[in-house]
Amino acid sequence: MASFTAVGVNSASARVLRPARGDDLEDLARINLAAFRAGNAPALSAAAAAQLTTEAARLQWQEFLGHPPPGSTVTVAELDSRLRGFAGAGPSRDDDLDPTVGELYSLYVDPDFWAQGHGSALHDAALSQRTRGEFASAALWVLEGNARAQRFYRARGWKPDGTQRPFMGANSLRLRRLLSGEL
Ligand SMILES: CC(C)(COP(=O)(O)OP(=O)(O)OC[C@H]1O[C@@H](n2cnc3c(N)ncnc32)[C@H](O)[C@@H]1OP(=O)(O)O)[C@@H](O)C(=O)NCCC(=O)NCCS
User: Which residue out of 44, 78, 114 has the highest number of ligand 1 atoms within 8 Å of its CB and is therefore the one to mutate?
Assistant: First the structure.
């Protein structure tokens, strides 16, 4: 069943966190593209950065919302009834990690609304859902050159575990953290 959390100081500006719905498709694709360009693209070559187009983002979301991987969730943050960001999470997809490890698949906030707490709220909500399940720890992948995201994650207890892989011609680092207690 869908759960809703209102966070804010007054009803005009309360942030609502809720599961993504099929009719969020266009907003998810738009925010995915804009945040990817603002956060990840500067760490990529121009040719690699150009690979994520509006159409590609829309197709990815169509596939994900139509056929969500088992155990996965996508949480969205709304402010004034407009989508501001999203976080995807679920079981780790890495072969070398055991089934007690969850993964933060994605965390993207509309760049026009960065530094307003949406990323933190989505991060905590996604990880809280994981702690209610069978996961003892979590992993995520982030581009080495994505300085803002690296800073964001490290301030929230994530640490590199030394595993790296190429991603779109750049280097991606795996970060890990325990999931225990209150976030
Ligand atoms: C990384 C990202 C998700 C952060 O989202 P965000 O909404 O800006 O995150 P927050 O606002 O919660 O926090 C960002 C900073 O603003 C600060 N902040 C939060 N609310 C604030 C407020 N009301 N006023 C001023 N600063 C605030 C936070 O303290 C935080 O600083 P810290 O990281 O040093 O702790 C966002 O920059 C993004 O979408 N990046 C592009 C995509 C990406 O790289 N994703 C991660 C890799 S998959």
Answer: 114
Ranges assigned E (strand) in the chain = 5-7, 15-19, 73-79, 82-91, 101-109, 137-143, 159-167, 170-178
Q: Which domains does the chain have, with CATH numbers?
A: 4-178 (3.40.630.30)
**pLDDT 10s digits, 56-93:** 999 999 999 999 999 999 999 999 999 999 999 999 99
Name the one residue in this structure whose structure tokens are 């707490």. Answer: 117
Q: Parallel, antiparallel, or unpaired: how do β-strands 73-79 and 170-178 relate?
A: unpaired
| For ligand 1, atom 26: residue with the closest CA | 115
Tens of pLDDT, residues 113-140: 999 999 999 999 999 876 666 789 999 9
Torsion on CA atoms 180, 113, 8, 11, rounded to nearest 10? -150
Identify whether the C-beta of residue 74 lies closer than 8 Å to the C-beta of residue 50.
no
